[in-house]
Write a structure and sequence with these properties.
With 69 residues, the chain is mainly β. Helix content is 0%, strand content 45%. It is built from no helices and seven strands. Strands 2, 3, 4 and 7 form a four-stranded antiparallel sheet that branches. β3 (13-20) and β4 form a beta hairpin. It is globular and about 35 Å long. The mean pLDDT is 91.
Length: 69
């Protein structure tokens, strides 16, 4: 279950960006259900670290190096 505003679109697919070895990777998700504020998804592992995008930062690209704050 994720807040619906954390879902992003990349290459026409819904998903999230995760951090893996200090690089950004897009994970497409299957949306199983939704409510006003949340979506039930399939495709994430329990230890995946989701990157929350900031509107004032540049767009992420697959494999882009990221810095954890």
């Amino acid at each position: 279950k994720l807040p619906s505003d954390k879902i992003v679109f990349y290459d026409s697919k819904a998903g999230v960006w995760i951090s893996k070895n200090s690089k950004a990777h897009f994970v497409p998700l299957k949306i199983e259900g939704r409510s006003d504020k949340y979506v039930a998804v399939k495709g994430l592992k329990s230890d995946d670290k989701i990157i929350i995008l900031s509107p004032n930062k540049k767009t992420l690209k697959e494999g882009m190096r990221i810095h954890n704050d």
